[in-house]
Each structure stands twice: as C-alpha cells, then as structure tokens.
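Cont'd.
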Amino acid sequence: DAGVIQSPRHEVTEMGQEVTLRCKPISGHNSLFWYRQTMMRGLELLIYFNNNVPIDDSGMPEDRFSAKMPNASFSTLKIQPSEPRDSAVYFCASSPDRVVVYFGPGTRLTVT
Amino acid sequence: AQSVAQPEDQVNVAEGNPLTVKCTYSVSGNPYLFWYVQYPNRGLQFLLKYITGDNLVKGSYGFEAEFNKSQTSFHLKKPSALVSDSALYVCAVRDDAGGFKTIFGAGTRLFVKA
C-alpha cells in the first residue's frame, strides 16, 4: 500500500488567500484524522472522521477552518482566509481500528 | 483528562551505548500507550504500543518500552544506539475509558553521535 497520501507537500500563500489541503487515506481504514504540528504546541488534533462522518471537530481553531470527507478515499482541509499564524505542518492520518494511527508525509504551509 | 509528558527536549547518546527516552502519562481509565518516531520532513511512524499484557513491549528497529503502572511511565529503550536512530521520538496515550482521542507528547529529539 502507498500509505496516506497528502498534497501538496509544500504550500506558500499570502495572508487572506484560501488554502486547500488534500488527503487520501489508506484503503480500508475507516477513521481519518487531521493534525497540525508546530514547534510551540506540538501535534494537535483538529478533526476526526469515522466512516466519512465528522465525529469531533473541537480542535478546529476557528470558523476559518473547515474539513470534508465526501467519500472513503478523499478528504480536504480548507482554510479561508488564511493567516500567518496558520503556518504549520498539517498531517492527515488514518486508522483501521482507532488505535494505531498511520500518518501521511504532511503539508508544510507557510502563510506570508 | 488524559495527558502525556516527555521531560527531556533532547537526549544525546554515543553510538553503541544504551538509550532511554522518558515518558509519563495521566489517564482516568487504563492507558493505551504508543511510541512514534519522526524523521525530518516525514510523518510520524508507529514504533510500538502497549494495551495489555506483558509490561515489556518490543517494537520496530530493536526498540522496546516498559510500562510501569505505579510510576505511570512508558520509557522507550534500546540496548545499543545507532546514528540512524537520530530522530524525534513522540510518546502518545489514549484512555480506554472511552473516546478515540490520542494525545501526543511534545517529542524528544534523540541525537546519536558516532
């Protein structure tokens, strides 16, 4: 299996622009997670889907952030409008059992 | 509420020497405990987990971890470090009392010098 696939790997954008991050989970995994990693706060869970349904989005920082999972093989995380404090590495991860989590390579987002 | 702490930001060890990376946790129920490793520009990779059973858990690349309930610890160990072990090691905990949320520690950066 190719593992969790994320695109783009790097994104540089200007403040105020819309950013869309994409994720393809491992086939057969029914749980999908979006995390954000920064030096200051470490790894934070943003949102969790189970069977394509958002279960907990309490980690989403504010209304500027939204996530969707239209089917079992695709998810997006959107930031609109983006701000410099959103700069971080965003990881998508999936799990077959909600125990062990398999991470993608991450998207490094820089908002200038 | 569950939490996990890694008291050391960085651990330095010479190649061939044993290494220990420390982790303590707090949960209300029984813990599920994990170690992940992160290499530069990569996502976290699963190393090993403890859910139940033997307190000594063996994982990938010769790593092992010991669950100590009385000290609420889950330290990662390796008898002989390799330069290629240099990476960020992240401890994680999940409470079996319900929910799905895994809490990750801040990570400990391991440097192995040749």
